[in-house]
Amino acid sequence: MVSTLRRALTRTGFALLTGLVVACRTTAPPARISHVPDPLLGAVPGVALSSEQQTAVRRALAIAERGEFARAEHELATLPATHPAVRLAAVEITFLQGGTASPAAEKLTAEYAQYPAAWGVLALAYQGEGETRKAVSAARRAAELGLSGNWAERAAEWERVLTDRLLANGTALLQSGDAAGALRVASEVLAATPTVAAARMLATRAHLAMGEAKAAAALVPALPDSDEGLELKGQVAERLGQWDLAVELYSRLASSNPRKCELLRTAREQWRLVNAPPYLTRALTAPVLSRKGLAAILVWKVPNLGAAATGTVPVFEDIVHLQERRDIITAVRANVMLGDAVTRRFGAEHAVTARELQTVLARLASVIGRRPLVWCDGNDVDDCANLPATVTGAAAAALVEQLITGEDSPCRPR
């Protein structure tokens, strides 16, 4: 009687214990997967797995995320190996171990193009294997299929990082003199994302460096109107000889841009040179500069010299039929150059001597309010000017330029 009661109590206790274990497994929280997509979320292809099988899939992945790969694979081995979710879980375990998972993931997405989780795993596999461009495409597909996990944001961030890296490499190539390499990089970025302004600007600079002004011009309409974009558009206009357009573009630069004044000054000067009379070109290229040529250079290089020409109008008999006569009169009335009032001759055809050029530049500095040039001869200073033995048109123009762009230049930061 006692032994029978004892056996009954034992059976009852075992049943209660078994019930508690089952209840604990039933009420235990589901396995949490945090590093890879849940293969059971979204539209899962194939026959529906039982709740126990679904739990096993998730448990296997949670175990793998803890680094217990052998246990994870053992858990997964109890499930139907051909089921898409089980196959994807196996790919994810390979990925978590650091293995090459993209081939198997590619096969799954090829078989089941509407399987969201498979595209997410493929994106992660590509990214881990350094195939960022493919990863971006796969992540966008996962987002289109509604896979949770901010896949669109991931794709955008991966693409931004890839683009920044490529553009940095392209810029380095351009700076090292490899314009063709820089253009290849810029073209790669634009092929994937045509709206990247930095890539378009890099391509424009590369074309300019390669002497392909027309190809650069084709890219200009899509460049932004930022200061960087406007400067680049201006450079393209310069290469095409469109100095009036360059002036218009540079004038739109922000007033705080430290390069604006000099860019505008140079473009305006070149614009005036393009429209200048032939005698100015002759003066600038003269191997021995004449006095009439010097007068032409002075008036061209210093457009506001006419405002200082307030002296009496000289009467020189030797300039009546010269094309340069207006410039000669301006230079004399401004008291920058002198003629012989007694003989009424300017000496237009006489060659300019180095000493005369030195005197003229000193007068010019006084008239336009610039600091006179410091000559290197006998002066131990860094910022000095060399007086040429023979005054050519180019040498005279360069010295006038040095004078008007000195410390008191309006383009110099105050």
Describe it for me?
Helices cover 60% and strands 0% of the residues. The chain has 414 residues and is mostly helical. Among the domains are: 23-149, Serine Threonine Protein Phosphatase 5, Tetratricopeptide repeat (Alpha Horseshoe); 278-404, no CATH class. It is rod-shaped, with a radius of gyration of 40 Å. Residues 12-29 have low confidence and may be disordered.
Please outline the helices and strands.
Blueprint: H1 2-27, H2 51-65, H3 69-76, H4 84-96, H5 102-111, H6 116-128, H7 132-144, H8 151-175, H9 179-192, H10 197-209, H11 213-219, H12 227-239, H13 243-251, H14 260-274, H15 278-284, H16 291-301, H17 325-333, H18 354-368, H19 393-404
Helix pairs in contact: 2-3, 2-4, 3-4, 4-5, 4-6, 5-6, 6-7, 7-8, 8-9, 8-10, 9-10, 10-11, 10-12, 12-13, 13-14, 15-16, 16-17, 16-19
Largest sheet: none
The CATH class of the domain at 23-149 is identified as Mainly Alpha
What is the N-to-C order of secondary-structure elements (H for helix, E for strand)? HHHHHHHHHHHHHHHHHHH
Note the overall shape: rod-shaped
Separation of termini? 114 Å
Uncertain runs: 12-29
Helix content: 55-70%
Into which percentage range does the β-strand content fall?
A: under 5%
Mean pLDDT: 89
